[in-house]
Amino acid sequence: VWAFGLLTEGILGGDDAYQVQRKEFRDLTGFDSVTTDGSGVAVCIVDTGIDLSHPNVPNDIVAGWKDFINSRDAPYDDGGHGTSMAGILIADDHIPGMAQGVELYVAKAIAKTGTGTDEGIASAVDWCVEQNVDVISLSLGGSQGVDFIVVNFDSLENAVNNAIDQGIFVVAAAGNDGENDDGDVSSPGSETDVICVGGIDSDGDIWSGSSKGDQGVNFPERWLPRNDPNKKPELVAPGENVPVLCGDACQNSGGFDSDYVLSDGTSAATVWVTAAIAHLLEIRPDLQHDGTAGGKDTVSQVKTWIKDTSTPSPEQGEHDDYYGYGHLQI
Q1: Which of 38, 69, 248, 274 is most buried when burial is the number of CB atoms within 10 A of its CB?
Q2: Given 123, 186, 187, 267, which residue is catalytic?
Q3: Which stretches of the chain score pLDDT less than 50?
């Protein structure tokens, strides 16, 4: 059973406060310095769904939809988390999305309880691949599977590695272990070529709940130490008090009377990095999975660029087990 991380903390004191907080994160990560919007890039979000009734979700935004929980034909979101994450990408007003031009695919593989099966999420990832997307965004995680030499018994890890083998970028949450940290990031972010993301606040300081990475041998899940540029997490991004959309399910479950709330968690940080990758692929369509320079080696190359361009914490060396190679700098 898999669970994603989102802590809906409360409502800021007034509409302008959401915009101020968003601007602080945009300044921190450099989004205001770019003029692209992710156009021409297909992104697939695997989550609880999407609420098209939210006033800041365009009615025609979903290019493809698949429900792995209830097999419903029309998009919906009975958990709320998926709408919050999708809004970071595509919201069209008030707290506008970070990559509004993307072609959005949504796979519902997380139930309203916030859980899903390994096989169900793996099937959702496979469906994303079949839709010919460029980026798969996974604001979820769980314990790692067990590898025996060359045989992997974990369905989701197999699915994300298959996607990466085809040149599709997979971005996943480090996890929200906090004080109960188990010593490593969550799966599938633990997979070598997945871009694993931790969380920071608007000052660039690590969010207290962000999971730690383990770079050594971690028998039996991992037989060899991690090496650059694949140390975990690879980077951190906005993950504390992040303004997000709050659809009907979010309002009902949290007792909120607002279309916007604050999110704590590496879930939100994951989507900020997804947005950054979309901007990169718009500028460099040759790096897309079906581009002239696309492929698994390109995924590794982009991870090197992340390593070399992220803004490091003043306290860290080249890599920090919480902060990664640094915070997102688009």
Answers
A1: 274
A2: 267
A3: 1-4, 7-13, 145-153
Distance of CA 72 to the CA centre of its chain: 24
Q: Which residue has the tokens 């298959």?
A: 162
Instruction: Say which amino acid occupies 200.
Output: I
- Confirm if 50 and 83 have CB atoms less than 8 A apart: yes
Q: Is 279 a catalytic residue?
A: no
Task: Give the pLDDT score at 318.
Answer: 86
Is 267 a catalytic site residue? yes
pLDDT the model gives residue 254: 82
**pLDDT at residue number 136:** 98
Start-to-end Cα distance in the chain: 34
Q: Which two tokens stand for residue 181?
A: 């940290």
- In this structure, what token pair is assigned to residue 227? 């090496």
Active site residue 310: no
Residues 18 and 109 sit within 8 Å (Cβ to Cβ):
no
Q: Which of 51, 77, 81, 134 is catalytic?
A: 81
Rounded distance between C-alpha atoms, residue 330 and residue 99, angstroms = 12
pLDDT for the residue numbered 7: 43
SS (H, E, C) the chain: CEECCCEECCCCCCHHHHHHHHHHHHHHHCHHHCCCCCCCCEEEEEECECCCCCCCCCCCCEEEEEECCCCCCCCCECCCHHHHHHHHHHCCCCCCCCCCCCEEEEEECCCCCCEECHHHHHHHHHHHHHCCCCEEEECCEECCCCEECCEECCHHHHHHHHHHHCCCEEEEECCCCHHHCCCCCCECCCCCCCEEEEEECCCCCECCCCCCCCCCCECCCECCCCCCCCCCCCEEEECCCEEEECCHHHHHHHCCCCCEEEEECHHHHHHHHHHHHHHHHHHCHHHCCCCCCCCHHHHHHHHHHHHHHCECCCCCCCCECCCECCECCC
Q: Is the pTM of this model over 0.90?
A: yes
Catalytic residue among 37, 47, 78, 154: 47
Beta-bridge mates of residue 108: 47, 67
Q: Dmax over Cα atoms in the chain, in whole Å? A: 55
Nearest to residue 319, comparing CAs of 190, 231, 252? 231
